[in-house]
Design brief:
- By secondary structure, the protein is an alpha+beta fold.
- It is about 45% helix and about 20% strand.
- The chain has helices at about 10-25, 30-35, 40-55, 105-125, and strands spanning about 5, 60-70, 75-85, 130-140.
- The protein is globular, with a radius of gyration of 16 Å.
Length: about 140
């Protein structure tokens, strides 16, 4: 079955995010903490809002979709982040009001996120190599 990879539109990004959360099925602790309630309509809407905001303020971020050419079905996709010249500044993860139930939940998510990026950040600060990141999923969910 041939696949076509191409840029994704905002509605397609929303569908890709649905596929991603369906694939994790609530069993990924990192995803559950950083994107709480991702399997609910409200949590999904907040996740889409947050990820589209990142794309809108970071020119190095873009989304691709994967489509089954025979059926036209959207199978998945990826959010890419490629920084060739300028390295992104360090930032504290945040989200719209209502993303986390409590301030403590938010602080825990921020600490977890920092634990993932601190080592990478040190390498990026030290090296003169491009940075490439990807958040992706390719699967079918019923």
């Amino acid at each position: 079955m041939p696949y076509l990879v191409s840029p994704a539109t905002e509605p397609e990004i929303s569908h890709i995010i649905t596929i991603m959360f369906c694939a994790y099925a609530g069993r990924n602790e990192y995803i559950n903490v950083v994107f709480p309630e991702g399997l609910t309509p409200g949590g999904h809407a907040l996740t889409v809002q947050r990820l589209l905001f990142i794309q809108s303020v970071a020119p190095c971020v873009w989304w691709n979709k994967v489509v089954d050419e025979a059926t036209g079905e959207l199978l998945g996709g990826a959010m890419w982040n490629l920084c060739v010249r300028e390295k992104p500044p360090a930032y504290e993860m945040d989200g719209p009001e209502g993303t986390w139930d409590t301030e403590e939940d938010k602080r825990y998510a921020q600490a977890l996120q920092r634990s993932f990026v601190e080592d990478e950040g040190q390498i990026w600060d030290r090296e003169r190599l491009p940075i490439l990141g990807m958040f992706a999923c390719l699967c079918l969910c019923g």
